[in-house]
Design a protein that fits this description.
About 35% of the residues lie in helices and about 20% in strands. By secondary structure, the protein is α/β, with parallel strands linked by helices.
């Protein structure tokens, strides 16, 4: 499942530093000048999941495979991008390709890093969202009211346009439009930037990591220091714990970012546990059991019979499938079962 979250921000706000920290290695070219990232960098990042270690102890496995997602480091946007400034349309096309947006805002005080248009977190966010709204308006301007005898799909598409346009003109996001299910289906073809789920990362100084978040933010937000996070990837676990304790942090900000981005994409995980491997499988919320089985092997979806389900807590506390079944804590679910976060599963399929 190749769902992607894109790091979006003005130049020199720390996107590439944050991306490198996410990958725990130097991948992007983190340099102190605008547009040091031109082509987007893509990296696969594991989702921190302490449940895997506990499952491995129960089934005596040495192989742990966490769920993963993709992060994309996108070149810095400048004011006027919707009119072709900076990397313009190329930049916007890269955002169009991702499934969720992570706005990275400069909130650090190092004036040795060129500001390149950055003013304050609130002003920077306004610039970013305004450019995306203007780009979406340009997309809608290309749409034409259907002629006589339109199809149902054309009617839904045009009614969506008429609902979204005034919202964008008012400086709001397309996601705020009250669309019907049919209109939502048709508007997907527009790939509107402000329809994408979004969150905020405030890239701050080390001493302000624990500060409260500003009031009035329009998206879910976290605060972290990309510079510190990069340092944490290059030290021992003991040194990492000491450094986190020194700043009053319980866990690295990257862990929180990865988990929040995972939720932003409406992903959950189910778990499989055997001696060969313990694994977390990412699926979309609302996925039914046969489709979940298909993520393990494409043939499993058609061959699906039943799903043997246990809760993570029962599986660990009771010590595996045999004792879970003996305690009556295992459930047999059919084709209509909707998978839940943390389900431990054995799929039964036709040979």
């Amino acid at each position: 499942m190749a769902l992607q979250a894109g790091l979006v921000g003005l130049p020199n706000v720390g996107k590439s530093t944050l991306f490198n920290a996410l990958l725990s290695r130097q991948v992007a070219d983190a340099a102190n000048y605008p547009f040091c990232t031109i082509e987007p960098n893509v990296g696969v990042v594991e989702i921190p999941d302490p449940r895997l270690g506990k499952l491995a102890e129960v089934v005596h496995s040495n192989t742990l495979v966490p769920a993963a997602m993709e992060f994309v480091d996108i070149a810095g946007l400048v004011e006027g991008a919707s009119q072709g400034e900076g990397l313009g349309n190329k930049f916007l096309s890269h955002i169009r390709e991702v499934d969720a947006i992570i706005y990275v805002l400069r909130d650090f005080s190092d004036e040795n890093i060129v500001r390149a248009g950055s003013k304050s977190p609130s002003d920077d966010l306004a610039i970013l969202t305004t450019e995306l709204q203007l780009a979406d308006l340009q997309t809608l301007e290309k749409q034409r009211e259907p002629k006589s005898n339109p199809t149902k799909e054309e009617k839904f598409r045009w009614s969506a346009v008429e609902k979204i346009r005034p919202i964008l003109e008012a400086g709001r996001n397309a996601s705020e439009a009250n669309l019907t299910e049919e209109e939502q289906k048709e508007v997907k073809s527009f790939a509107l930037l402000t329809m994408k789920p979004a969150m905020i990362v405030l890239n701050t100084d080390e001493e302000h990591i624990s500060d409260s978040l500003p009031l009035g933010l329009s998206y879910p937000a976290i605060r972290l220091c990309a510079k510190l996070e990069a340092q944490l990837t290059d030290i021992t676990p003991e040194e990492k714990n000491e450094l986190l304790s020194a700043y009053g942090i319980e866990q690295p900000g990257l862990n929180i970012l990865i988990q929040e981005a995972f939720r932003l994409l409406h992903l959950i995980t189910f778990l499989t546990a055997g001696e060969k491997e313990v694994r977390a499988w990412p699926i979309l919320e609302g996925t039914k059991a046969p489709q979940a089985a298909g993520t393990i092997h494409t043939d499993f979806e058609k061959a699906f019979i039943k799903a043997n389900i246990a809760s993570f807590t029962d599986f660990v506390e009771l010590g595996g499938w045999k004792d879970v079944r003996n305690a009556g804590k295992a459930r047999m679910e059919g084709k209509e079962y909707i998978m839940q976060e943390g389900d431990v599963v054995e799929f039964m399929v036709n040979p």
